[in-house]
Amino acid sequence: MKPNLPFGQVPVLEVDGKQLAQSKAICRYLARQWGLSGSNAFEEALVDSLGDQYNDYRVEIKPYMHTAQGFMKAGDLEQLKKEVMMPGRDKFLGFLTKFLKNNKTKSGYLVGDHLTWVDLLISEHMADMSASIPEFLDGFPEVKAHMELVRSNPKLKKWIETRPDTPF
């Protein structure tokens, strides 16, 4: 299978016999198809910038996440939580809070007045992290409200309630 993939790895989305690789490229492609990328070119760029910042944050917290998930042992989990995870959280959620407060539409979304792919990405990460670290959103009421807003969308809420239980 791997030799037939563009970069020898998943994820890959196949559309009309053509393959598209890399998770964020797939997110952006699908977002454009379904109206989840922003209302204009600048909003699309802001959404993409948040997706890129999310990637930077994920790299920053990787030692904690991979240790917590059992992929590697980068040190004591509680120490990694204190020294890696929570400082990374503080920085990233601080950025998110600024975006939410500075969104002139006051919609509760990160960019503009409607749901985007990065709202979905980030709200699901917040829900996952809150499930494993109950205090994860403490001190970040705007980010918590954003997560709740996104997850209250009727179609998303139904999917969340009925989706298969998977480890990731």
Summarize this, please?
The protein is mostly helical and 168 residues long.
Under CATH, the topology of the largest domain can be stated as Glutathione S-transferase Yfyf (Class Pi), Chain A, domain 2
The tally of beta strands, per DSSP, is 2
What summary fits the major beta sheet?
Answer: 2 strands, antiparallel
* Topology order in helix (H) and strand (E) letters: EEHHHHHHH
Report mean pLDDT, rounded to a whole number: 94
Roughly how much helix do the residues carry, as a percent range?
55-70%
Identify the CATH architecture of the largest domain.
Answer: Up-down Bundle
In the residues, how many domains can be counted? 2
Terminal CA distance reads 22 Å
Overview of the molecule:
The structure is a single chain. Helix content is 60%, strand content 5%. The relative contact order is 0.10. It folds into two domains: 2-33, no CATH class; 35-162, Glutathione S-transferase Yfyf (Class Pi), Chain A, domain 2 (Up-down Bundle), CATH 1.20.1050.10. It is built from seven helices and two strands. The chain has 168 residues and is mainly α. It has a two-stranded antiparallel ribbon.
